[in-house]
Recover the amino acids of this structure.
């Protein structure tokens, strides 16, 4: 897309596809890329035809982290005034489900971008890590928070304090990865999952995602209350009537997102 310098952006049916495209820097996440990714997701959010989004990189690297070349000379005042990391708010504000399709390196900010996605599909070649400590810094795009919630304290501390990489088996075992597939299946698997999601009632999909996201923040009693009220509210939708009628009539439902 001519409007983007660091991304390839397209829609495939009801799926928005973003390919990180800074191959010479292993898709290092510079300010331009983060801004463009926010813009691309806002456009998908606004596009009624899009029901889910896939974010992928190259075969060698999903993303090798924040751009070290860009950050190397920055002072505290520089990063504070630029609010380095703050621009990701636009990416996570997208309510439509995001699927990361990860091949190769997902390090530092790259691992954190995967953690910002709702589903992580990884190829057998994927490697995850938070190597920030080796650079004299710490994760700054959510790595200490989302990773600890996703994999627990013991594994998060190990990764963040030693900077080591983990292979895809370990990443799946500890709950960072949703599915592992052969490299040649990666993009198809992610797009098929996104298509499937996009075919369900959009109201139900967004409500389901919202409720699971609440589980990352709220206590169990609050979370259960939110889930129950949201579950009950879906009985106000046409799609609930349609979905249940279709089941009983042994036919495919036709959801209208109403
Ligand atoms: N930023 C900028 N450039 C990067 C980069 C990064 N994070 N990662 C790789 N590159 C560049 C390299 O500088 C190199 O460029 P040149 O050809 O111009 O020298 C090119 O991409 C290819 O990289 P390598 O030659 O290093 O490739 P490799 O196959 O030998 O090694 C790698 C691959 C192990 C991923 C290695 O590139 C690496 O360790 N990268 C840095 C990983 C890292 O530390 N990430 C954390 C960044 S900090 C962060 O993300 C902070 C945060 O949480 C907010």
């Amino acid at each position: 897309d001519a409007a983007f310098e660091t991304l390839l952006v397209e829609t495939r049916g009801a799926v928005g596809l973003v390919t990180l495209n800074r191959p010479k820097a292993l898709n290092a996440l510079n300010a331009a890329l983060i801004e463009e990714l926010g813009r691309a997701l806002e456009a998908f959010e606004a596009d009624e035809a899009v029901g889910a989004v896939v974010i992928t990189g190259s075969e060698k690297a999903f993303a090798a982290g924040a751009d070290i070349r860009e950050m190397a000379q920055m002072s505290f005042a520089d990063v504070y005034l630029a609010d380095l990391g703050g621009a990701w708010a636009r990416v996570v504000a997208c309510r439509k489900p995001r699927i990361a399709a990860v091949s190769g390196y997902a390090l530092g900010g790259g691992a954190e971008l995967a953690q910002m996605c709702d589903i992580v599909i990884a190829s057998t070649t994927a490697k995850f890590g938070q190597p920030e400590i080796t650079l004299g810094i710490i994760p700054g795009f959510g790595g200490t928070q989302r990773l600890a919630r996703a994999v627990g304290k013991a594994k998060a501390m190990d990764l963040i304090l030693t900077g080591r990489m983990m292979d895809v088996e370990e990443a799946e075992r500890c709950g960072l990865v949703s599915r592992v597939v052969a490299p040649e299946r990666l993009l198809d698997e992610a797009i098929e999952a996104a298509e499937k999601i996009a075919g369900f009632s959009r109201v139900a999909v967004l409500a389901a995602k919202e409720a699971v996201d609440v589980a990352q923040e709220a206590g169990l009693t609050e979370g259960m209350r939110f889930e129950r009220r949201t579950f009950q509210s879906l009985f106000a939708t046409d799609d609930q009537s349609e979905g249940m009628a279709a089941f009983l009539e042994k036919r495919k439902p036709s959801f209208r997102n109403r």
User: Anything to note?
Assistant: The mean pLDDT is 97. The first strand starts at residue 7 and ends at 12.
